[in-house]
Automatic annotation (TrEMBL):
<protein>
    <recommendedName>
        <fullName>Adenosylmethionine-8-amino-7-oxononanoate aminotransferase</fullName>
        <ecNumber>2.6.1.62</ecNumber>
    </recommendedName>
</protein>
<keyword id="KW-0949">S-adenosyl-L-methionine</keyword>
<keyword id="KW-0032">Aminotransferase</keyword>
<keyword id="KW-0663">Pyridoxal phosphate</keyword>
<comment type="pathway">
    <text>Cofactor biosynthesis; biotin biosynthesis; 7,8-diaminononanoate from 8-amino-7-oxononanoate (SAM route): step 1/1.</text>
</comment>
<dbReference type="InterPro" id="IPR005814">
    <property type="entry name" value="Aminotrans_3"/>
</dbReference>
<comment type="function">
    <text>Catalyzes the transfer of the alpha-amino group from S-adenosyl-L-methionine (SAM) to 7-keto-8-aminopelargonic acid (KAPA) to form 7,8-diaminopelargonic acid (DAPA). It is the only aminotransferase known to utilize SAM as an amino donor.</text>
</comment>
<feature type="binding site">
    <location>
        <begin position="316"/>
        <end position="317"/>
    </location>
    <ligand>
        <name>pyridoxal 5'-phosphate</name>
    </ligand>
</feature>
<dbReference type="InterPro" id="IPR005815">
    <property type="entry name" value="BioA"/>
</dbReference>
<keyword id="KW-0808">Transferase</keyword>
<dbReference type="InterPro" id="IPR015422">
    <property type="entry name" value="PyrdxlP-dep_Trfase_small"/>
</dbReference>
<feature type="binding site">
    <location>
        <position position="399"/>
    </location>
    <ligand>
        <name>substrate</name>
    </ligand>
</feature>
<comment type="similarity">
    <text>Belongs to the class-III pyridoxal-phosphate-dependent aminotransferase family. BioA subfamily.</text>
</comment>
<feature type="modified residue" description="N6-(pyridoxal phosphate)lysine">
    <location>
        <position position="282"/>
    </location>
</feature>
<dbReference type="InterPro" id="IPR049704">
    <property type="entry name" value="Aminotrans_3_PPA_site"/>
</dbReference>
<feature type="site" description="Participates in the substrate recognition with KAPA and in a stacking interaction with the adenine ring of SAM">
    <location>
        <position position="24"/>
    </location>
</feature>
<dbReference type="InterPro" id="IPR015424">
    <property type="entry name" value="PyrdxlP-dep_Trfase"/>
</dbReference>
Length: 438
């Protein structure tokens, strides 16, 4: 950027407020967005010059902080040679190298890769594959999905229909959304003992309706935007067995959890299972550019390819964008070359210890941590904006939603910034609850 260029931020923000939609917002937006001008590592520089510690990793994505030099270098090299080329009939090394890494690293059996540009679309492709699999086997009645409550799989029409029916958009679009089956969410926390009752509701739906069900979709171990809930690995293991027993495919959505966030490279590893279809997104390029992927077993690709019409009818314009593939390769290499397990343990230990004092604070319903994720669940759902503002005053960027104040910092966040982050979170919660007489 031209250093002598000083934008008029009042005018920019006013234009933004009047003309540009932000996620889940009104337009014009009564809440003015905060201008940002620069990122580096775990620091975000705001338009007014303030430097704040990032607690969100841009919604799970920025695994190694912003502007990682190795990822940037890979992108610079690619942008100078071939930023984009169509994938219809053509191919390139970045896509092939990335596919190899995904096949090698992901749970066993997932050896076919479909590249798309966002997480929601990766789920759309997963759903399309599952339904087309059963059409190819001449069992077209198996075209419904089964999922658990409190899930989140995206904002497109197919994915909205499998988001939580209460906190999702079912009310608004009930006439338009496909009707699927919902089982109760897993109730037992990550380290709670196994309990067969937990999965009984899901099992009984499978018993009654397996002839109509193409696949179960689930976020392994961590339910993200649908409630930030952690559940026990044995639930996943039992789910895998039930899917096999009732001839239903298993779609694991690792768009948020993939690449280490829970302490395993993929959250499925906690249960030692492989899904039939796996989606990746958010974390794939370490927050540098958009890219997502749908992985599947050869059984799925062969069945679809041997069926009628014999092709998978999907092909985004920017499919396997080489610039994004290069960023993803560099992101994965940076991850594997780093002591990421130690880093996640370090963040887990720190968040577990520092957030614990909130457990006894009036108005706090629950505090939970897993991997490099810390969650504070409040009793009230109307304090998020105030807590966000209070945290910002303390130099910390948080983006609460509803009752949930949460953080998932970059794995390599310096210890001092991690301490500032947790202190900012704790203080902003205590302060806001006190001011609101709780
Ligand atoms: C964010 C998210 C999605 C949707 O990804 P987008 O890139 O926002 O479309 C789907 N599933 C899960 C688990 C997510 O966290």
């Amino acid at each position: 950027m031209n250093p002598s260029h000083t934008p008029n931020w009042n005018a920019l923000l006013e234009y933004d407020r009047e003309h540009i939609w932000h996620p889940y917002a009104k337009l014009p937006n009564p809440i003015e967005a905060i201008g940002v001008i620069r990122t580096q590592g775990s620091i975000i520089t705001l338009a007014d010059g303030r430097e704040v510690v990032d607690g969100m990793s841009s919604w799970w994505a920025a695994l190694h902080g912003y502007n990682h030099p190795k990822i940037q270098q890979a992108m610079h090299e690619q942008i100078d040679t071939m930023p984009h080329i169509m994938f219809g009939g053509l191919t390139h090394e970045p896509a092939i190298e990335l596919a190899k890494r995904l096949v090698d690293l992901s749970p066993t059996g997932l050896d076919k890769v479909f590249f798309v540009d966002s997480g929601s679309v990766a789920m759309e492709v997963a759903i399309k594959m599952a339904i087309q699999y059963w059409i190819s086997l001449t069992r077209p009645a198996k075209n419904k999905l089964l999922t658990v409550r409190n899930g989140y799989h995206g904002d497109t029409f197919a994915t909205m229909a499998i988001c939580d029916p209460i906190n999702g958009m079912h009310h608004l679009f009930s006439d338009v959304l496909s009707k699927h089956f919902f089982a109760p969410a897993p109730q037992m926390g990550f380290s709670e003992p196994s309990d067969n009752q937990d999965i009984a509701g899901l099992k009984s739906i499978l018993e009654q309706h397996h002839n109509e069900i193409a696949a179960v979709t689930i976020e392994p171990i961590v339910q993200g935007a649908g409630g930030m809930r952690f559940y026990r690995p044995n639930y996943l293991k039992q789910l895998r067995e039930l899917c096999d027993e009732f001839e239903v495919l298993l779609i694991a959505d690792e768009i948020a959890t993939g690449f280490g966030r829970t302490g395993k490279l993929f959250a499925c590893e906690w249960a030692g299972i492989s899904p039939d279809i796996l989606t990746l997104g958010k974390t794939l390029t370490g927050g540098h550019i958009t890219l997502a992927a749908t992985l599947a077993t050869s059984r799925i690709s062969e069945t679809i390819s041997n069926g009628n019409p014999g092709i998978l009818a999907h092909g985004p314009t920017y499919m396997a964008n080489p610039l994004a593939c290069r960023a993803a390769i560099a992101n994965i290499d940076v991850l594997l070359d780093s002591p990421w397990q130690d880093n996640i343990q370090r963040i887990y230990d720190h968040l577990t210890e520092s957030l614990a004092e909130l457990k006894k604070v009036n108005g706090v319903a629950d505090v939970r941590t897993l991997g490099a994720i810390g969650v504070v669940e409040l009793e009230r759902d109307d304090l998020g904006a105030k807590i966000q503002a209070a945290a910002l005053e303390q130099g910390v960027w948080l983006r609460p939603f509803g009752k949930l104040i949460y953080t998932m910092p970059a794995y390599n966040i310096p210890q001092r910034q991690l301490e500032q982050l947790s202190a900012g979170l704790v203080n902003s919660v205590i302060q806001t609850l006190a001011q609101n007489n709780l």
